[in-house]
Amino acid sequence: MKRITSIIAIATSMAATDTVNAQSTQKVRQQNPFTLVYEGAITKNEKGKVNIHPVTYKIKDITIAANVYTPPDYDASQKYPTVVVAHPNGGVKEQVSGLYAQRLAEQGYITITADAAYQGASGGAPRNVDKPANRIEDIHAMADFISQYKGVDTAKLGLLGICGGGGYSLKAAQSDKRFKAVATLSMFNSGVVRRNGFINSQYSTIQERLKQASDARALEAAGGEVRYAGVANPTDEEIAGITTDLYREGYVYYYRTHAHPNSTFKYTMSSLLNLMTFDAGTNMDLINQPLLMIAGSKADTYYMTDDAFNKATNAKNKELFLIDGATHIQTYWKPEYVSQAANKLVKFYQTNL
Predict the structure, then answer these.
(1) Overall average pLDDT of the 34-57 stretch
(2) What does the mean pLDDT of the chain come to?
(3) Is the pLDDT of residue 17 over 60?
(4) 87, 292, 302, 330 - which has most CB atoms within 10 Å?
(5) pTM of the model
(6) Are the C-beta atoms of 301 and 295 separated by less than 8 Å?
(7) 3 CB-contact burial (10 Å; exposed 0-12 / middle 13-18 / buried 19+)
(8) Strand pairing category for 316-323 and 290-296
(9) Is-contact 10 231, C-beta < 8 A?
């Protein structure tokens, strides 16, 4: 337990990241004109193939940056099933959510994935606010925008949430019945983890951390500095010493192999006031749509998927699909695991949209 607590401390330690971000920016621009960092990413739009369309729209006064993927031989006069894809905590649309958006588009779907408000390339200040209500509204707003996009069949609108985006997608789908089928991949219940710690390792510090969040909000309200948690620039040695797969492999994914300058684990300390009272698993009985939840059989986050799945008592055709041998982060990038997840998602949407 002490070891896990120290891991969380590493994940929330403050460190300078300007140099890392500058290097990441240069790297992704050299590799991909759309700054996509996943394997097999689109490098140019070509006739007859999947195309990517950067778009912007507003949530109130905040500009949201999104990517729409259209399928091969897209014809705006036709109607296509469509999937909204919500990215992980700290992630951006150019990483795993873009990968799955592209894979679904290859199979005939229009897809959209957007950077959360206050995060990535989207607007909003202070930066990296991470409140559940905002993330849920992001998902509703993606549905608003894509429903007006040429070629979208609004009667066949699906939802896919990855990691933290999976928890927020479950919550969005509880009320938003425009989503006719709901899927999650490696679902992460952000509120429960921020409150109790990963694998329930921080029960003893709940009140202390709530006090820190309260003080941070008071400081912001008085016009003072914005305090942040989750900022880290770990060394290779520190990463190798982390014992939980989620954090060790997560640091490698986000800071090494799939780094993007807009992606950060950082979030405002005051966001914890909202995060620590949130639970994606509440009101799961409100989901009456078809539900598919995918997780790696070796994922140390699986307990969150299991809990939410069991609470979805009214979901139609609900299915839990385990990818044998996969950890949480490996479902983001490892080709054989991505293929299994993508194939399962296509079958699910074909059946239920």
Answers:
(1) 97
(2) 92
(3) no
(4) 87
(5) 0.92
(6) yes
(7) exposed
(8) parallel
(9) no
